[in-house]
C-alpha cells in the first residue's frame, strides 16, 4: 500500500431526527477498488455525501492527515476528493472538450480564465484516451450516450487529478460490454488512486471488487474480500431473496 | 411616551401584517406547493378589489355588499388564476424563472386593462356601517376595520390549513408536492390538483383584494404595491411553511408600522425591505425549513 | 473553436453603423433617441451576461443604472449651478446648505470614479452576501427587484436631497461643454455609442474565454461546478459585478443625452423594461440583448408616447409570447428555422433544441 489513504471513522449523518448513517467506519487505499454495497436506504450515497461535504456529518473522514468533515464542498474537492452522481451530471450544453477543460481548470490562474483556450492540455488527452472518448472531443455532452456520460464524468475526475474517486453507481443502466469496459477502467485507475464504488450490481461487484463493505440501515454489516463477505451469514440474511443471486450470479 | 404611542403602531401594524398575510397566503400556496412564481398575483388581488366595487354597484347596501363580495372576489380571481394556469403556466412547470417573467407580462396586461375599464383615478369601495366604529384598547381608539382584516386573515388561514389537512383533496395536494410521480402512479390526477391549487391560491388573492379595498384605494396600480412585500414575506417565512408565513407577515407589518411611526412612511418601506433582505442573509431558507438531501 | 472573426466583424459592422453612418443619416432628434437606446443597450449587454450566460435573473438593474445616472446628474447639476445651491433645493429650503454627499460630486474626477466604483462595490457586497448564502433563482430575482423598488421610493421621498419624483434636470454643461450645442450633442452620442461597442467587445471576449464556459457551466449545474473544486459564488459574482458596472455606465450616459433622470427611470417598471429587451433579443446571444433593448427602447419612446395603452399591451404580450414560445429570443430564430428545415419530421427530437441552444452559446 503506497500513498495516502482515505480513513472514515465512526461517521454519523442525521436528517432531522432520522439517522441515515449511524457510525460507519471503513478505509480505502490506492491500489484497490473498494466497494460499498447494501440494500436501498442503507446509507451508501449518504456516506459519500458526507465525505464530500454535501450533507453534514459527524465523526471523522481523513485523507492522509487532513480532516475532510466540516470543510466546504469546493475545499474538499481541492484536497483531491472527486465524486460522480447517480444521474450523470455533465454540462449538457458544452462539448466534451469544454467539460474536461473546466474540470482541469482549478489549477489555473484566474487571469488565464479570461483568455480563450489554445490547444488541449496533455492531461485532457490522456483522460480521453483512458476513457475512450477521444473521438467525441467536439460532441456536446448532452447528446452522449448514458454510458459515455458516466465515462466523461470519470474523465473529468482524472483531469481534475483527484486522489480519491467516489463513484455513485457508475454502471447503472449500462450494457454488459460497457460494464466490462468500466470495470477494467476502474482497475487501471485504481493503480494510483483511491477508488470507492457505490453499487447495486452484485455481478459487477464480484468481478471487480478488491474489498467490500456491506452497509445495512446506516451501519457496517460486514467487511472484507468478496469471498469473505459472501460467506457472512448476516449478509445472506439481509440479502435474503437476492442471496442466491450473490452466490450464483 | 404614552402607552398609546406604543400600542397604536402595534395594532395598526398587526392589521397591516394581516393584509400582507392575506396577500401572501395565496402565493405561499402556489409558490410553496407548486413552485410557480406568479407575478400577476398582485393583479389578482386588484381583480378582487374591483370585484368588490362591482358587487357594490349591484347590491347598494354596503352592510350587505362586502360579505357578498368576499366569496364573489374569491371565485372571480380564482377563475382568472385557473385561466392563467390552463393557458400558460401548465406548459412551464419546468421553467420557474421563465414563469416569473411570463406572469410579469400578464400582470402588465391586466393592469392596463383595468386602467381602461375603470376610471384611472380608481374607484371608491364603500365601507359597511358596521366597520365604522372604534374599539378602545388601553386608551387607543382602534378602527374596527383593522380588526376585521385580522379576523378575515385568521379565518382564511384556518380554512386553508383545515382544507389542506383534513380533506382528501388537501391530502392529494400534499402528496403531489412531496412526490409528483408517485402521486400520479397512485391514481391522483396531478393536473386536477395543480388547477385547483392555482384556483385557490388566486382566489385568496381576490379575498385579500376586498380587504385592501377597505383600507386603501382601489386602482390599477394597487396590485403592484403588494406583490414584492408579499413575496418577501413568503420567502422569509420559508417555502411552503404556513406558520412561517404568518409570523413573517406579522413581523413585517409591525416593523413597517413602527418604522413609519419613527421616520416616514416611505423610509419605513425601505427599512422593512432591508430588514427582510438582511434576515434572508442570516437564514436563506426562511424561518422554517424542511431538511432534505436533495441536490437543489 | 468557432471562428472568432464572424462575431468580431459583426461588432465591427455594428460600430460602423452606429459611429459612422447614423450621425450622417439621422436627424438630431433621432440621433438623440438612438443615443438613449444605446444607454439601455449598454445595461442590456450586462443583463445578457448575468442572466443569459450566468442564469442570474437580475430584476433590479435600475439600482445600478441609478448609481451611474445620479452620480452624473449630481455633477452636471452642480456644474450648472456653479457656486450657488442647485435651484430645486432652494425651492424647498432656501437656507439649508448643500447636502454633504453632494459635495464630492463637484469634482469631475470623483464623479467618473464614482460611476465605476459605486456599482462595483454595491454589487460586490450584495453579490458576495447572496451568492455565498446560495440565494438564487426566484429569490435572487425578487430580492434585486425589491432593492430597485426600495431605492425608487427612497429617491421619491427625499425631495430636497435628490429632487424626488421630479428628478434632476436642466443640465447646461457636460464637463465644460455646453450641452445645447449640436456638435457637443453629437459628441455625447458618440461617447455612448462607443461605450456600447466597448461593452460588446468586453462580453465577446468574456464569452469566448474559459470564464465564459465556466459561467455557462455554473448556470446549468452549479452543484457540479462546486464538485470540480470551484466556488460558484465567485464565478457568479464576477458576472454580476460586470453587469452592474455596465448598467451604471448606461445610466451615466443616459443623463446628458436625455437631460433628466427621475425615480421612474430606475424603479421596478424600468428594471423590468430592461429585462424585456434582453428577453426579446435573446438573452444568451452576443447581439440579442443590445438589439432587443434598442427595439424595446424605440417602442417605448415612440409608441409609448403616441399610443401608451397599446404599448403596455404589446410589452405584456412580448413577455408572454417570447418567453413561452421563443425562450432564447429572436436571435435563436435562425438556428430554429435551420433545425426545422434539416428535420422535416414534425416531432422535435431532443437533440434539435440542444443544438440550437449550443449555437447560441458559441456565437
From TrEMBL, chain A:
Which molecular-function annotation in GO is an example for this chain? Answer: ATP binding
Residue ranges occupied by any ABC transporter domain in the UniProt entry: 6-242
Respond yes or no to whether keyword Zinc-finger is given for this record.
no
| Pfam families for this protein | ABC_tran (PF00005), BCA_ABC_TP_C (PF12399)
* TM spans (from-to): none
Identify the PROSITE patterns for this entry: ABC_TRANSPORTER_2
What is the name of the protein in this document?
Answer: Urea transport system ATP-binding protein
Organism the protein comes from: Actinoplanes campanulatus
Automatic annotation (TrEMBL), chain B:
Q: What is its main location?
A: membrane
Which Pfam family would be a valid example here? BPD_transp_2
Transmembrane residues, as ranges? 6-32, 44-62, 68-88, 100-118, 144-164, 227-252, 259-282
Q: Where is the protein localized?
A: Cell membrane
Q: Which UniProt keywords apply?
A: Amino-acid transport, Cell membrane, Membrane, Transmembrane, Transmembrane helix, Transport
- Which GO cellular component does the record give, naming just one? plasma membrane
Q: Does the keyword Kinase apply?
A: no
* Alphabetical list of InterPro entries matching this protein: ABC_transp_permease, ABC_UrtB_bac, BCAA_transport_permease
Membrane-protein topology: Multi-pass membrane protein
The GO terms describing molecular function are: transmembrane transporter activity
- Family classification: Belongs to the binding-protein-dependent transport system permease family. LivHM subfamily.
Stated name of the protein: Branched-chain amino acid ABC transporter permease
Q: Which organism is it from?
A: Actinoplanes campanulatus
Q: What is the lineage of its organism?
A: Bacteria, Bacillati, Actinomycetota, Actinomycetes, Micromonosporales
From TrEMBL, chain C:
Q: Name one GO cellular component term.
A: plasma membrane
Q: What is its main location?
A: membrane
Compartments where located? Cell membrane
Q: Which PANTHER family match?
A: HIGH-AFFINITY BRANCHED-CHAIN AMINO ACID TRANSPORT SYSTEM PERMEASE, SLR1201 PROTEIN
Recorded GO MF terms:
branched-chain amino acid transmembrane transporter activity
Q: Which CDD domains match?
A: TM_PBP1_LivM_like
The annotated topology with respect to the bilayer is: Multi-pass membrane protein
Q: Which organism is it from?
A: Actinoplanes campanulatus
What's the protein here called?
A: Urea transport system permease protein
**Spans through the membrane:** 6-27, 108-131, 138-159, 186-207, 237-262, 268-298, 310-327
Q: Which InterPro entries match?
A: ABC_transp_permease, ABC_transptr_urea_perm_UrtC, LivM-like
Keywords assigned? Cell membrane, Membrane, Transmembrane, Transmembrane helix
